[in-house]
Structure formats: C-alpha cells, structure tokens
UniProtKB/TrEMBL annotation:
Tetramer of two alpha and two beta subunits. GO terms for biological process: regulation of transcription by RNA polymerase III. Belongs to the casein kinase 2 subunit beta family. Residues 220-265 are annotated as: Disordered. It comes from the Eukaryota. GO terms for molecular function: protein kinase regulator activity. The gene is CKB2. Residues 225-254 have a biased composition (Acidic residues). InterPro entries: Casein_kin_II_reg-sub_N, Casein_kinase_II_beta-like, Casein_kinase_II_reg-sub. This is Casein kinase II subunit beta.
Length: 265
C-alpha cells in the first residue's frame, strides 16, 4: 500500500502541469513552456506574492521531492496554482503564449458572445485588474466591445489577474486579421412596429453623436470601418422613400376618384 501511494505521488509530481491543464475548470489556461518557468528573470518579484514560493516553484517545475504531511501539501498545492496563474499572465503576452491562446480562441474554447446581434462571436478571457484578488476573470467580445461573466461557475472563480488587462488587446495587435468587423446594428425596442419613445429619443441622440464622430474622422482621412454598412443603410432608406412616394401616388389617385364615386352613389 505504501509503495502504491508513493508511486501515485511520484506520477502526480512528475506531471503537475499536465494535471493542472487537464483539470476541469482550467480550460482557459495554456501550458507554459518549461524553459519559461525555469528562467528566473520571468519570475522576478513573484517570491513576495506567493507563500511557500520555492516549494510551489519546485512543484510546478516537477522537481518537488519532499515528504510533507497532507496539510502542508495542500498549502503548497494552493501556492503552486497561484504561482502558475501569475506566471501565466506574463507568458500569454509572449510570442509563444499568444500563439497558443490564439489557437484556443479560434477553436472557441472560451465560449461565444451571448449577444444575439454578435452572431456567436468567439470570446477572450481578460482581467479587469493586473493585481490578484481584485476581480474574477471576464470574457471580452471584440465585436460589441463588451465584457461578460463566464457561464460556468468553475470558470467564474478564476482570478482575472491570471490573464491581465492587456492580453486581449495585445492579441489583436499581433493578429489583426482575427479582429471581427464592427457592426452598427442595435436592438430597437418597438410596440406594434413603433419605437418606444424614451428609447427612440436616446437612440436618436446616440446616432447624432456617432454621425458627428464619423464626420470628424472622415475630415482627418481616418477610415471609420462603417463605410459598407453606411452604404447599405442609404440603400434601405432610399428604398423606403421610394415606397412612401408610391403609396402617396396611390392615395392621390384614390382621392381624385372619390368625388366621382360619391356622385354615382
């Protein structure tokens, strides 16, 4: 029995990172290269933020071989997870880290935007703060530029500092082709086809401000990214105007015939 326990312990410590990445709830994390973990420069300052730092580092790098009791083991394990998360925030903004996270993003590992108009746009994990224990991880949609809570409670307990507040922006800077096209489409509250007054007034104000901003950008020769949608909207508006003119023509025709009909009666 003792031999079995020691073998299990040995396997566990030998493949700690594999175990961590494959554990349920850790799907957002990518595997950090061993070379990165063993470079002391990459770990600068973390010894003051992690309890049992050296033991935790030995466990993460698969060189931990001390015999400790269960309570101490649990504390070291907790510190190892925290250390891995802090190093992870630094690793994901490196070339290798961005490439790994980009693959996860393309596969939709982080989920899809719950906003209907975003049409299932893939999300990216992000933190609102770079300091640990400030807020949990959020999911960023590059299409509507908003953030959401993870659906799973397992993911909702991950510290946002393990991804940082800059990672998602750096990813799109390095891989600009992954940036989805922006959209002007918004949901319009209506009652029997008519806009709700308060919402309509707010939307008119927002549209005026947006048009003014786009005019300023055009004057400076900066592409807004909305040119195609502007053309579509102009076509729709012209079709609506033509339809209204046709209706007016039909009404005028009937109005001209009304007196004759009345005379016949």
């Amino acid at each position: 029995m003792d031999d079995f326990a020691s073998d299990t312990d040995s396997d566990y410590t030998s493949y700690w990172r594999d175990w961590f990445i494959s554990s349920r709830g850790n799907e957002y994390f990518c595997e950090i290269d061993e070379d990165y973990l063993t470079d002391r420069f990459n770990l600068t300052g973390l010894n003051t933020e992690v309890q049992y730092y050296q033991y935790a580092l030995d466990l993460v790098t698969d060189v931990f071989d001390m015999e400790v009791d269960d309570d101490m083991r649990e504390q070291i394990e907790k510190s190892a997870r925290h250390l891995y998360g802090l190093v992870h925030a630094r690793y994901v903004v490196t070339t290798r880290g961005l490439a790994k996270m980009m693959e996860k993003y393309k596969q939709g590992v982080f989920g899809k935007c719950p906003r209907v108009i975003c049409e299932s746009q893939h999300l990216l994990p992000m933190g609102q703060h770079d300091v640990a224990n400030m807020s949990n991880v959020k999911l960023y949609c590059a299409k509507c530029e908003d953030i959401y809570n993870p659906k799973s409670s397992r993911h909702n307990t991950i510290d946002g500092a393990y991804f940082g507040s800059s990672f998602h922006n750096i990813l799109f800077q390095v891989y600009p082709t992954l940036m989805p096209p922006k959209t002007q489409r918004r949901y319009e509250p209506r009652i029997y086809g008519f806009r709700v007054h308060a919402s309509a007034a707010l939307m008119r104000w927002q549209e005026e401000r947006r048009e003014a901003m786009k005019d300023r950008l055009r004057q400076r020769g900066i592409e807004t990214g909305f040119e195609d949608e502007d053309e579509v909207e102009e076509e729709v508006e012209s079709e609506e105007e033509e339809g209204e003119e046709a209706e007016d023509g039909i009404d005028d025709m009937f109005e001209g015939q009304m007196p004759a009909a009345a005379h016949v009666q």
